Amino acid sequence: SFYFRPCSEDSSYETIDILPDIASSPSIKLTDDTPVSNRTEPLTGEEFQSFLDQDGRLVNEIGLRKAIFLGSVDSSIRKQVWQFLFGLYPCTSTKRERDALLIDYIIKYHELKNRWKTMLVIDSKPGDTEIKTKYTPRPLDLSLLDQTNISEHINTPDMEQKIEFMKIQAQVYVQRQRLDIEELKNQIRVIDKDVPRTDRDEEFFRGAGNPRLTELREILITFAGFSPDLGYAQGMNDILARFLYVMGSEVETFWCFYHYMEKIKEDFMEVGMVKKIELVKMLLGEIDNSLLHHFECHDMGNLFFCHRWLLLGFKREFTFQDSLKCFEILSSQHLELSSMEAETAVRREEMKEFANTGDLVLYLFFWLSFLKLF
């Protein structure tokens, strides 16, 4: 069976296969005493600093995610928080280690862009004018380091030597990446249709010749070229726009987007899409079964209209600023962490009860003998 979903803001539609045999998830149990989270004010800079140690490590990740879930993040510190929230930097990294990692990000992204741009020119043929542009490899731009502690040492012989070595490593890394230039050309055509209509009502993206649109395009092409299993899909431009608005720099935006897409890439595939909608249907059946029945009576029981909400995190249902808050709250994964903690506590109590019966040793010996059979 099939269904149709809107591909973009225009009236075009894409056919999506509905895959059968989706594994059913366990039923959801709700009780009258199910706790409801109390909302708080957005996370402030002072509160954020309390989650870090003196070297800049994030030492209370669970506390940070809970604070984000309950109140979102103040816009003045959103960039620093998102760097941890979306995996740009490890929580255990120090400020100094993050500065060094930023250099690596800059160089790798520079080499990734150089490769696909060079390959487009090499592979160009007469009549390819809509894609082909004259391209001269640009020098490495390290201006992003001006805001770090490395900036004052960037021109020292020792640092220049380290950067040259990192360039070689990045070139090796990039050459190992598979790049299908013909497929990339097809994806560029789609990207070039979507980028010009991305959040144009926002001041950040408004105006003819806005350089932010060029940055969106460069990032999407780079991601599509070096993510062959996923490529580019409509909707990615909407997700990327939020990252670019918050992070401000092309390099940091690319790597935040890259890490985020690694986590949610199933959502852009048929299996992941159907699975999420099935979970929503199951949840609605537990919370408001009469509403689900109403949808079913009006041939809307498949809940396909929820797909855009889930894929884009309600981006088009709220104002841009509110959608940022919604995005970070949904990405905090606080409820998932709480569920795992609860499950661990239940298992711990079960083990204690089991141990009190005196049968634990017998249990362990049974499994040891069982494993020896293999």
Automatic annotation (TrEMBL):
Single GO term (MF): GTPase activator activity
Keywords per UniProt: GTPase activation
Residue intervals of the Rab-GAP TBC domain: 72-334
Source species, domain of life: Eukaryota
UniProt key word Disulfide bond: no
Keyword Transcription applies: no
Pfam families linked: RabGAP-TBC
The protein, known as: Rab-GAP TBC domain-containing protein
Organism: Lottia gigantea
